[in-house]
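Weekly puzzle thread! Below is a chain. First person to post its structure in token form gets bragging rights.
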Amino acid sequence: MAGDPYAALGVSRDASADDIKKAYRRIVKTDHPDLNQEPAAVARFKAASAAYDLLKDPEQRRRFDAGEIDAQGQEQGPRWRTRQHAGAGRNPFGDAAGHAGDPDLSDVFADLFGQRTGGRAGGFGGFGGFGGARADQRGQDMRYQLEVDFLTAVRGGRTRITLPEGGTLDVAIPKGVRDGQTIRLRGKGAPGLGRAPAGDAYLDVSVTDHPLFRREGDDIHVVLPISLDEAVLGGKVQAPTIDGPVNLTIPRGATSGQKLRLRGRGVNGADQHVELRIAMPRSVDARLAAFFEEWRQENSYDPRRGMSTG
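Winning reply:
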């Protein structure tokens, strides 16, 4: 990465760590090579990734701001040395330090001076120029699909996936991961060439549905059946949550569709919303029918009053 890492992310030098992370995520969503193949987008993504790698580490950021290291994380000092009489046909940069080992520049030199073969760039070693310098290139990023069950997604956990090319990958599922979110595993992509690091693995998360729970943002929603007598008389019942059952107080005279809130029982401290639904008994016996016949004579009411469209 060359230039100013703050400019690459589009943030000011006094930006907070959260601002830096948000800026990087915005660029990933628009310019990741899997989403946008335009050369300008690829370049922006590459610059932003290198900038984020530097600035997300508080100590590295401090040292960069203080001028102790450059934008590549190298100790600050003269990067280029000019040879006065570079021979004709030789590398125009002479034997300048920092070129051959810079993974961000290796592709450029390979294109300019020859094709990469056997981990070396033709036109460098023994051909006049860099005298055997290796073509260090960062490994390719890899992308995989990862299906996660609902409860593991909201509670976090660990899983192991089998890679299409063979082998396995252990993955830590962050608490609260969302459907469609991407998990980045640094250094778990394809191996790099020479001394360059491996690429990253990107896991596109697909969260399966749950038979009881539904998620909206970080809130959890559930429908809770209650009996006829619980609706009339109220009482305490057990309600399922993503962390296990809890006691819930049903108010006297509850009705279907009424919603109760369990504070802090959602994802990351959000809430759970419980929608009550009255479930009639499987059969209405003679005593229950007789009771309601008598009750209706004295307490009849019309719950549909006011619904007429005429």
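Puzzle host: Confirmed. Bonus trivia for everyone else. The longest strand covers residues 219-227.
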